[in-house]
Design goal:
The chain has 118 residues and is mainly beta. The chain is 0% helix and 59% strand.
């Protein structure tokens, strides 16, 4: 069973910044995909940023504002969120796909709330 430890959520005024961090209980060496997704109230879960088979991708709404980095030494994925907008308000979930004993396995974190006030 994979555990995902998420941190960094909180409340900020529009234009401010937050940094999210995700630490999986498995090594990133076995990770095929790791990323952040978000879900606003009443909305669907959508991509924020991910590293998928070595390819870095961003959701259209966050390009140029958010930066995802993989810190292999600390076994973490970080998401620096700058120029935050009220539209960024959502629960943010870390997500991974890794190579398990029986094949690829996916896992989701419990989510961390990000609230951006106008």
């Amino acid at each position: 069973q994979v555990q995902l430890e998420e941190s960094g959520g909180g409340s900020v005024q529009a234009g401010g910044s937050l940094r999210l961090s995700c630490r999986p209980s498995v090594s990133l060496r076995t990770t095929v995909l790791i990323g952040w997704f978000r879900q606003a109230p009443g909305g669907q879960r959508e991509l924020v940023a991910s590293v998928d088979n070595g390819v870095l991708k961003y959701g259209d709404d966050v390009k140029g504002r958010f930066t995802a980095t993989v810190d292999a030494a600390r076994n973490r994925m970080n998401l620096q969120m700058n120029s935050l907008k009220p539209e960024d308000t959502a629960i943010y979930y870390c997500h991974i796909k890794h190579i398990g004993p029986t094949g690829d396995v996916t896992a989701w974190g419990q989510g961390t709330q990000v609230t951006v006030s106008p």
